[in-house]
Automatic annotation (TrEMBL), chains A, B:
Chain ranges of the HTH tetR-type domain: 16-76
Native source species: Rhodoplanes tepidamans
Pfam families with a match to the protein in the record: TetR_C_30, TetR_N
Keyword Ribonucleoprotein appears in the UniProt entry: no
DNA-binding region(s) in UniProt: 39-58
InterPro entries: DNA-bd_HTH_TetR-type_CS, Homeodomain-like_sf, HTH-type_TetR-like_transc_reg, HTH_TetR, PsrA_TetR_C, Tet_transcr_reg_TetR-rel_C_sf
Protein name: TetR/AcrR family transcriptional regulator
Top-rank taxon: Bacteria
Keywords (A to Z) from UniProt: DNA-binding, Transcription, Transcription regulation
DNA sequence: CAGAAGGTCAAGCAGTTGCTTGAAGCATGT
DNA sequence: ACATGCTTCAAGCAACTGCTTGACCTTCTG
């Protein structure tokens, strides 16, 4: 066997350029067409490289997708966890749900302000409902920790909600966030020009109040 | 050429059985694995039929997916359009947003109460963020009409919202609905046993109030 | 300069894909 | 009995898939 895939970067290294180009191409193509509809040859060609290079650098197509996720998320998710912990601590364990939502959703929506961040958000949103086991494994793993932090913080912010009710409300929050990131073009098709899910400032201004109001709705429990 | 794909059903017809089995198998497999990860051979095998039968009856893999969608949606979407028109008319053009949401979302969530309806909801939810052009074309086409009715009714129910704000709020509604239908298992993984997105009664009881509260939130406009 | 190591490449392997083919099966109407 | 037309099937085609191979090239090290 001859693959590195871990002990890289020994000095300036010429090959790291190729590696980065492969990650860029993979991110863009996976986002545009979906994991299953992109071949390693497509990626190699888009990266002006060779089909074997992707396997040399990453070992497999699956590992390449994982590397794409980790490259963008390692920083953002650490920030989200920090912000969540801060707003819980600052409120003495009883945070405002608006702050919790801002800490969880804000960083990823702001990521969409840059072109490459928007491309990644497309990929992340679309991957979130991908049934492919390889994709699921990666998505589950990469969001597991920050997801737990969010659920915990949301529970602390909404102590009046039953587990059931919290579950469903958080599902709505996740759904909205994923749908906005995935940007499938359906709504723009219905609304016509002038609006776009890729406008991350609009997402922050208009979607956050919606979600906050939803989380603050009086409990529906008791309604049998 | 020898394919029917349109002028079928001449009497009792033995072959309609096979056709129905193919639709069932395709719906289940597409829902479980995603359009791209299922081959026509997989479908034929699951339907205890032959690989050529799928192409004989439907012409192509794409047309088979379209037939799966149409079989379930032709009824439901007509009902949704009727309910939307009714609640607008009954309120003299100024419907309650709660009724609009119920008319639009209720029928599809209630579809999830049956086993095959739940399977279809899985497929529909997951297909809504599928970037594959064939899948997009089908999804766009099959939901276009009812989507326009809903946007129109929501606009009538919320006359104080700007086009921008209505767009983003409807995006949140769509997102929640799609995420619930797609049921990717992530939230259940975070919450543990006892809750499930496949519980359609829970969806109606808990998600609808969330979305109604979100739609009723005071306009955020003016906040520059 | 010789060697080693990291990196790139064209070629190829085995398996899968959507779809087609031509021969057969089958019930019907004459 | 015969012909008709819908339906099924095994076999096959060309294209594509993820991944591997072995030969090269380049750069750093002794």
């Amino acid at each position: 066997m001859n693959s590195p895939a871990s002990r890289r970067r020994r000095s300036t290294v010429p090959g790291d350029e190729t590696r980065e180009r492969l990650l860029d191409a993979a991110e863009r193509l996976f986002a545009e067409r979906g994991y299953a509809n992109v071949s390693t040859r497509d990626i190699a060609e888009a990266a002006r490289s060779n089909a074997a290079a992707a396997h040399y650098h990453f070992g497999s197509k699956e590992a390449l997708l994982e590397a794409v996720f980790k490259r963008r998320l390692d920083g953002v998710n650490a920030e989200r966890e920090r912000l969540l912990a801060e707003c819980v601590a600052a409120a003495g364990g009883r945070p405002d749900i608006a702050d919790v939502l801002e800490a969880f959703i804000g960083p990823t929506l702001r990521l969409g302000a840059t072109e490459e961040g928007h491309r990644f958000n497309l990929l992340a949103g679309r991957s979130s409902t991908d049934p492919n086991p390889e994709v699921r494994r990666i998505v589950f793993g990469v969001y597991d920790s920050v997801g737990r932090c969010f659920v915990e913080a949301a529970a602390a912010a909404c102590p009046d909600l039953s587990k059931d009710e919290l579950f469903w409300r958080i599902a709505c929050v996740y759904g909205a966030m994923m749908y906005i990131r995935a940007d499938n073009g359906r709504l723009q098709h219905l609304f016509g020009p002038g609006v776009s899910l890729s406008d991350s400032a609009g997402a922050l201004r208009y979607a956050m109040p919606f979600l906050t109001a939803g989380m603050r709705a009086p409990p529906a429990a008791g309604t049998e």
